[in-house]
Amino acid sequence: MYLAKGIEGFDQVRVGPGRVLSTDNPDAQVTAFGGDADSPSETVHVEEIREAMDKTSGVPPIAAGVVRAKIGNLSSGNALRVTMLGLLSKTRRKRVGYGTGVSRMSALILEALDRAGAFATEPQDRKVSVHWPDAIDLDQDERLLNAERKNELGINPERVLAELGYAANRPTTSAPAQKEQTNA
How far apart are CA 142 and CA 79, in angstroms? Predict the structure, then answer.
């Protein structure tokens, strides 16, 4: 809303962008007030509500964009993981529920398609598993170090290779190299 002082006929003029008002009165002024004006107490109240919502949500302020100051560079994966620990654990918990739901829905859809005759499947073919990637992927050095530690613990080497993204049945040496070794 606007308050006009010293302008005759202001109540009959539409106020909006591109409108120019003129008067001979040097003391005339148009002032905005009400909901459009800046209200410091309202701004503080909104910020307090946002902070309370951030605290109850479990999302770290940096992830929600609340922290506006410079925080430095989070160059290592560990620094980023520690900063986002609350959000990552919440994400893991939700992935369990959502993964179960997606698996069940997929099985029901496949069963419905089978019954309708649109896509034939056997009951064992309808089992769907959901694998979520890490939210913050490890760099290659960390992944290899973890793989070495798992090998030292005696974890199945095929599983370790599969976690690294290598096929379990893939030969590690080429066929000609094996021939040379057998002839020697």
Answer: 14
